[in-house]
Amino acid sequence: MSEGIKETKAWYETSYGKLGVNAQRRYPNEELVRFMARTYFSVPRNERSDINILEIGCGSCANLWVIAKEGFKAHGLDLCDEAIRLGPSIMDDWGVQAASLKSGSMTDIPHPDQSMDCVVDIYSANCLNEADFETCVREVKRVLKPGGYFFSYTPGQESDAFRDHAPAKLIDSSTLNGIYRESSMFAGNHYPFRFSHPDSVRELMEREGFKVTSIERVLRSYNGMEEHFEHLTIDSVKM
Ligand SMILES: C[S@@+](CC[C@H](N)C(=O)[O-])C[C@H]1O[C@@H](n2cnc3c(N)ncnc32)[C@H](O)[C@@H]1O
Q1: Burial level of 167, CB count in 10 A (0-12/13-18/19+)?
Q2: Whose CA is closest to atom 9 on ligand 1?
Q3: Distance from the CA of 56 to the center of ligand 1, in angstroms?
Q4: CA 99, CA 141: separation in Å to the nearest integer?
Q5: How high is the pLDDT of residue 97?
Q6: Are 202 and 196 in contact (CB under 8 A)?
Q7: Which burial class, exposed, middle or buried, applies to 94 when counting CB atoms under 10 A from its CB (0-12, 13-18, 19+)?
Q8: Is the CB of 31 under 6 A from ligand 1?
Q9: Are strands 170-172 and 175-176 parallel, antiparallel or unpaired?
Q10: pLDDT value for 20
Q11: Given 54, 104, 196, 229, which is the most exposed site by the fewest CB atoms within 10 A?
Q12: Tens of pLDDT, residues 163-221
């Protein structure tokens, strides 16, 4: 495990330890819901239990419960033991059976080759620096079946927090050592925080054997339109 991943693990273990289930959202990410709808809308409910969906960096299951509730076979992986311990209580609150949850790093995914139909990343793989993210993309490719989907919702480089990031420092061309800009979303998240550019993410994904089917920008303003944060949605398929 790299020093950056150890730093992230320590930060999140403290956060989950202090705040419990309040460390993260309870509701699923809206872009994930849109991805699920456009990808699986036409699959009847009684055919979903054979579709294996893994969330890398699942936190305390704010997204996984809806995947399970919609009838898919839900799998979660998170770096933090505490998140994995909290997950079942959120699932239980929403009246769904616990998903299969494991602790570990998305740079070394504890699942067999070609065991997943879909892998999703909601604001988690951005905790990896560039080198670790390349390792993660190879791991996602390994666990996906041919034709399997990889969806990512991740920070984009048009964000004020990246363009004007002082006093944070760059640790490689797209990763900061944390969000130190006081007016930014995620201020105080002091661990490697990577911002993607659509061209470079497409180049990496295609080099690693994915076809990128869509990249869209979601630009949000915050603080009365004073602060802008760009989010990217990236849909890809394992070739
Ligand atoms: C911002 S939270 C998002 C959680 C969840 N995806 C959600 O949308 O509610 C980021 C999560 O990624 C996890 N994480 C960070 N680096 C990871 C890694 N290398 N492997 C697995 N999980 C990781 C953290 O422990 C944390 O739970």
Answers
A1: exposed
A2: 62
A3: 7
A4: 22
A5: 79
A6: no
A7: middle
A8: no
A9: antiparallel
A10: 81
A11: 104
A12: 999 999 999 999 999 999 999 999 999 999 999 999 999 999 999 999 999 999 999 99
* Percent helix / strand / coil, the chain, rounded to 5: 35, 30, 35
In this model, does residue 25 exceed pLDDT 90?
no
The per-residue pLDDT for range 96-124, each reduced to its tens digit, is: 977 899 999 999 999 999 999 999 999 99
159 Cα to the center of ligand 1, angstroms: 20
Structure tokens at 72: 């898919």
CB-ligand 1 contact for 21 (6 Å cutoff): no
Q: Which domains does the chain have, with CATH numbers?
A: 3-238 (3.40.50.150)
- Which residue do the tokens 């998140």 mark? 83
**95 φ/ψ sector (left φ>0, alpha ψ -120 to 50, else beta):** left
Integer Rg of the chain from CA:
17
Asked whether the beta carbons of 151 and 125 are under 8 A apart, the reply is: no
Q: Which residue type sits at 169?
A: K
Q: What is the pLDDT of residue 136?
A: 98
Q: Which atom of ligand 1 is nearest to the CA of 25?
A: 9
User: Residue 21: left (phi > 0), alpha (psi -120 to 50), or beta?
Assistant: alpha
- Give the residues across from 102 on adjacent strands: 77
Instruction: Give me the half-sphere count of Cα atoms (radius 13 Å) on the Cβ side of residue 188.
Output: 5
- Summarize pLDDT for 131-172 with one digit per residue, the tens: 999 999 999 999 999 999 999 999 999 999 999 999 999 999
Structure token pair of residue 25: 């959202």
For residues 221 and 238, the answer to whether their CB atoms sit within 8 Å is no
- Our answer on whether the CB atom of 5 is closer than 6 Å to any ligand 1 atom is yes
